[in-house]
């Protein structure tokens, strides 16, 4: 299947901690979904930035190993957006752990897109804060295991569900709902290949937003 054009993805964010960059609203413990687990501490200051490949290219590379979880999540989001712009259910396992809710949701979405002969013209998610467990154990903390949670403050504009055509003209079938600024909790799972994948994406602070990775992408 030939890749289709889509809006470039560029995610920018800062850590929600005392070392957050000036001007960024920090996540605080007043939001129940923000604080890391009792065995985790905020990681070092990080810039949550990535650049999408030009339109009409093959799948972007994945950076989903190691302990820099903001980089991992940014890469998974980047690939996930490419995947719904170039739907292929067989590639879901690259970014979502089989058997997890995220995998089931992405398989359903990509199959539906294939059946419709359509794709998603993606919109750029805007990330304003990120918090994740520290990979370095210290007093009162535990080493980073094979499950982790990254919390984002993120928004995204509505996205066009576009019919695939052979000519230059395209037909917009409908628009997928926008993601208003909200706290998103991303549960990650690391497999035996040492690669992190989405397991579950929830927005527990906003009942109006579906608990699904498709809401994030």
Question: Would you kindly provide a written description of the structure presented here, covering whatever features stand out?
Answer:
This protein is α+β, with helices and mostly antiparallel strands and 217 residues long. The chain has one domain (1-217). It contains 3 helices and 7 strands. The strands form 2 sheets. The chain has a 4-stranded antiparallel β-sheet with strand order 2-3-6-7. Strands 1-4-5 form a 3-stranded antiparallel β-sheet.
Residue-averaged pLDDT, rounded? 75
Residues in β-strands, percent: 15-25%
Number of individual domains: 1
Number of strands: 7
Query: Which structural class do you get from the secondary structure elements?
Result: alpha+beta
Task: Provide keyphrases for this structure.
3-stranded antiparallel β-sheet; disordered N terminus; alpha+beta; 17% helix; 217 residues; 4-stranded antiparallel β-sheet
Brief sketch in words of this structure:
With 217 residues, the chain is an alpha+beta fold. It has helices spanning 69-85, 101-116, 213-216, and strands at 118-121, 126-131, 147-156, 159-163, 171-176, 179-190, 196-202. The strands form two sheets. A four-stranded antiparallel β-sheet has the order 2-3-6-7. It has a three-stranded antiparallel β-sheet with strand order 1-4-5.
Topology of helices and strands:
Elements: H1 69-85, H2 101-116, E1 118-121, E2 126-131, E3 147-156, E4 159-163, E5 171-176, E6 179-190, E7 196-202, H3 213-216
Antiparallel strand pairs: 1-4, 2-3, 3-6, 4-5, 6-7
């Amino acid at each position: 299947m030939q890749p289709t054009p889509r809006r470039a993805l560029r995610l920018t964010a800062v850590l929600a901690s005392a070392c957050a960059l000036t001007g960024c609203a920090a996540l605080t413990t007043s939001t129940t979904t923000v604080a890391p687990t009792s065995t985790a501490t905020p990681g070092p200051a990080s810039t949550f930035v990535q650049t999408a490949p030009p339109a009409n290219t093959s799948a972007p590379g994945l950076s989903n190993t190691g302990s820099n979880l903001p980089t991992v999540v940014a890469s998974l989001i980047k690939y996930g957006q490419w995947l719904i712009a170039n739907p292929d259910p067989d590639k879901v396992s690259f970014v979502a752990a089989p058997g997890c809710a995220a995998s089931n949701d992405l398989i359903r979405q990509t199959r539906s897109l294939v059946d419709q002969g359509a794709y998603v013209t993606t919109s750029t998610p805007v990330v304003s804060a990120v918090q994740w467990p520290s990979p370095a154990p210290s007093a009162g903390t535990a080493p980073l295991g094979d499950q982790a949670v990254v919390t984002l403050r993120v928004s995204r504009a509505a996205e066009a569900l576009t019919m695939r055509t052979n000519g230059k003209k395209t037909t917009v079938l409908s628009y997928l709902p926008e993601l208003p600024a909200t706290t998103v909790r991303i549960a990650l799972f690391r497999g035996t290949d040492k690669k992190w994948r989405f397991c579950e994406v929830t927005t527990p602070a906003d009942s109006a937003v579906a608990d699904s990775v498709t809401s994030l992408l």
